[in-house]
Design goal:
The protein is of the alpha/beta class and 254 residues long. The chain has one domain: Glutaconate Coenzyme A-transferase (3-Layer(aba) Sandwich). It has an 8-stranded mixed sheet, sandwiched between helices. Strands 7-6-11 form a 3-stranded mixed sheet, with no helix packed on it. It is globular, with a radius of gyration of 17 Å.
């Protein structure tokens, strides 16, 4: 089974493996929800998922369709409000934030607001919602992205969610909490992190069948590469079984 999987299934499995048991994670709509549900069922039963509209600690038995879905409150620890959830992040209680976006740059700044120049962009996107708060206040932000030059840019058209802004010290100068910021980027080509000194994006691991050259050719800026590149495992049989039979039996995200 594990040799037959879709790009979406690979993204979901790779993201789920990053979730630590017992952690609190701010979960966005889409792939982050599937990753959280898969992790909760397999490797992180004590995960405390948090959703923008007030759900805290839900048991993700059935897939929510959005962050305000009643399933985000299922058997939860608390049914709260958006203000309480954002305050929880502001107080420093949320370890991980999972986000997607239309564009990302070399410092991990995300754009989910507009494509094209202001004041008349080509496309208006759904952001920000809580994406700014998540990237500003959670300790570690994990971004889940399709990997191509249209999305991985030298400079995003609009900063919806701050990464490391324009480099070392910029987050702190902007008034954001020290020690927070981008942690990982999960793409359909590999796993990326950020260099501790320069805050620039760095390739850490390759996905099955992908070469370093492919990643570099699909990135619109100079990407750092780790001295020793790891190789990500493909989805395991148990991951695919649970994902297909329990997390997403209707195949909404395949």
């Amino acid at each position: 089974m594990a040799d037959k999987y879709t790009p979406s299934e690979l993204l979901i499995c790779l993201s789920a493996r990053l979730i630590e048991d017992g952690s609190m994670a701010f979960i966005g709509t889409g792939i982050p929800m599937l990753a959280a549900s898969l992790a909760q069922k397999l490797t992180a039963p004590n995960l405390v998922p948090i959703f923008e509209f007030g759900g805290l600690g839900a048991i993700l038995e059935k897939l929510p369709l959005a962050v305000g879905d009643m399933r985000t409150f299922n058997k939860g620890l608390m049914a709260s409000s958006i203000c309480d959830i954002m305050e929880t992040a502001q107080r420093g209680y949320i370890e991980y934030g999972f986000l997607g976006g239309a564009q990302i740059d070399l410092y991990g700044n995300l754009n989910s607001t507009v494509i094209g120049p202001q004041p008349k962009p080509k496309v208006r996107l759904p952001g920000s919602g809580g994406a700014n708060d998540v990237g500003s206040l959670c300790w570690r932000t994990i971004m889940i992205m399709r990997h191509d030059k249209r999305r991985f840019l030298e400079q995003v058209d609009f900063i919806t969610t701050p990464g490391y802004l324009d480099g070392p010290g910029a987050r702190e100068k902007a008034g954001l909490p020290a020690g927070t910021g981008p942690y990982r980027v999960v793409s359909d080509l590999g796993l990326l992190g950020f260099d501790e000194k320069t805050c620039r994006m760095k390739l850490l691991a390759l996905n099955p069948g992908v070469t370093t050259e492919q990643v570099l050719n699909h990135t619109g800026f100079e990407l750092l590469v780790a001295d020793h590149l790891e190789r990500n495992d493909p989805p395991h049989d148990d991951e695919l079984r649970v994902l297909r039979e329990e997390v997403d039996p209707d195949g909404l995200y395949r």
